[in-house]
């Protein structure tokens, strides 16, 4: 969860390429970040970044993989 939180913060607050965000936050590669982020928040990294940039309310996203199907 800590790596996901860190990746989300990087995606929202920087224009760092997604592959670099993945490496900086401890994921093996971009595809690993993508799979994990989809599992936790239901968005790909690019979709998450765009949703935040568009002002969508992200606080209501699931906090764990078990809640992701809601």
Summarize the structure.
The chain is mainly alpha-helical and 70 residues long. The longest helix is centred in the N-terminal third of the chain and has 12 residues.
How many DSSP helices? Answer: 4
What percent of residues are in strands?
Answer: under 5%
CATH class: Mainly Alpha
CATH superfamily: Homeodomain-like
Class by alpha and beta content: mainly alpha
CATH architecture: Orthogonal Bundle
**Topology as a string of helices (H) and strands (E):** HHHH
Computed Rg: 11 Å
The separation of the N and C termini measures 18 Å
The CATH topology annotation reads as: Arc Repressor Mutant, subunit A
User: What is the 3D shape?
Assistant: globular
Report the uncertain regions. Answer: 66-70
Plain-language structure description:
The protein has four helices and no strands. It is globular, with a radius of gyration of 11 Å. The two termini are 18 Å apart. The C terminus is likely disordered. With 70 residues, it is mostly helical. The chain is 57% helix and 0% strand. The relative contact order is 0.17. It has one domain: Homeodomain-like (Arc Repressor Mutant, subunit A), CATH 1.10.10.60.
